[in-house]
Amino acid sequence: MNDTPVQAAGCVLWRRSPVDGALEICLVHRPKYDDWSHPKGKLKRGEEPLAGAVREVAEETGYQARPGAELPTLRYLADGRPKQVRYWAAEATTGRFTPGDEVDRILWLSPGAARARLTHPRDRELVDALLRRFEDA
């Protein structure tokens, strides 16, 4: 049995609403798991976690990300193996979503709606951590 944690990284991707300037958070829908989550993925061999997080955002959402503060690291079991996912707050800059096999939909939601839509409760603490960063700014 392999107890070495799977290393992954991702972002809580945010933007200001083009309509009213309110904070919006991007969630991705993965049809393989039928879940809503933050964009994330496994690191490639030798890849720095922040670089992997930005790469995953681009691959899954089509958006470029301007990373900011590091958020809490989540640790959990995935398919019986420990997994460690490092996260950063990241502002969406340019880009456009194109559906694919891995991610077929994205949503830009208010923080409250994002918390409610997230499939895994552990992902909700990342929304709270992002909001605290905005309150402290």
Question: Can you characterise this structure?
Answer:
This protein is an alpha+beta fold and 137 residues long. The protein has one domain (6-136): Nucleoside Triphosphate Pyrophosphohydrolase. Helix content is 26%, strand content 45%. It contains three helices and seven strands, in the order ββββαβββαα. Strands 1, 2, 3, 4, 5, 6 and 7 form a seven-stranded mixed β-sheet that branches. Helix 2 (111-117) packs antiparallel against helix 3 (121-136). The termini are far apart. The model has no long low-confidence stretch (mean pLDDT 96).
The count of strands amounts to 7
The chain-level mean pLDDT equals 96
N/C terminus separation: 44 Å
- If you consult CATH, what is the topology? Nucleoside Triphosphate Pyrophosphohydrolase
Q: DSSP strand (E) fraction? A: 35-45%
Low-confidence regions: none
| SSE sequence, one letter per element | EEEEHEEEHH
Derived structural class: alpha+beta
Number of structurally distinct domains? 1
- The CATH class designation is Alpha Beta
CATH architecture: Alpha-Beta Complex
Radius of gyration: 14 Å
